[in-house]
Amino acid sequence: MGCCCGKSEEEKMMIDEQNLTRQFLDPAHDAEVDGGLRDDSMMSQAQCDPRIETLTGKGGLPKLRLTHSSGSTCEVYLFGATVTSYCTPQGKEILFVSERSQFNGKKAIRGGVPIVFPQFGQPDKAMPSHGFARIAHWSVDTKQSAIQPDRSVQVVLTLRDSPETYKMWPHEFELEYRISLTGRSLQTALTVLNDKLDAW
């Protein structure tokens, strides 16, 4: 994670993790699904109601399931904000999650799409490897989590500094993790906010 300094009291500095927007495209679809054009394989798929569900996942951990009208789905655990499943409209699973994942709310989920913050590896031995974000319990921004005008299904998860994080990393911060599901892609974007003048 690079060094980030607030520019002024009025201007909040927002870092887009070097534009860390990951896109997982379904290569079986060359036509736009959400723009009104559909190929024959998509036309054969049963349409369903787009929705966001709160479910109990493995180990009793809460998770969200996003369902697009095309039939594509995505699952994300609030523990670590880890995306553990992305299925195409044909039901093909794209992501891998290790069978060794314990889902105990303590150790990071192995596989899927993990969040790495505020360090890669473990240069700071006082902090867990790859940071604490992937073993923290995130919150759902209910105002931003909804079916979008373009028919994509979006959830936004947030994580702020706390007494627990301050013991490992003495800085104020806010993370916003945006997950967007369409008929042919899964997109994720992590935004890091440092609204103080202190350098990280």
Report what the structure shows.
The protein is mainly β and 200 residues long. The relative contact order is 0.23. The radius of gyration is 18 Å and the shape is globular. It contains two helices and eleven strands. Strands 1, 2, 7, 8, 9, 10 and 11 form a seven-stranded antiparallel beta sheet that branches.
Radius of gyration, CA atoms, in whole angstroms: 18 Å
The major beta sheet can be summarized as: 7 strands, antiparallel
Query: Unreliable runs, pLDDT <50, ≥5 residues?
Result: 1-45
Q: Element order, helices and strands?
A: EEHEEEEEEEHEE
Average pLDDT score: 80
The structure class reads: mainly beta
Helicity level = under 10%
Number of helices: 2
Strand content: 25-35%
Distance between the termini: 9 Å
The beta-strand count equals 11
Globally, the shape reads globular
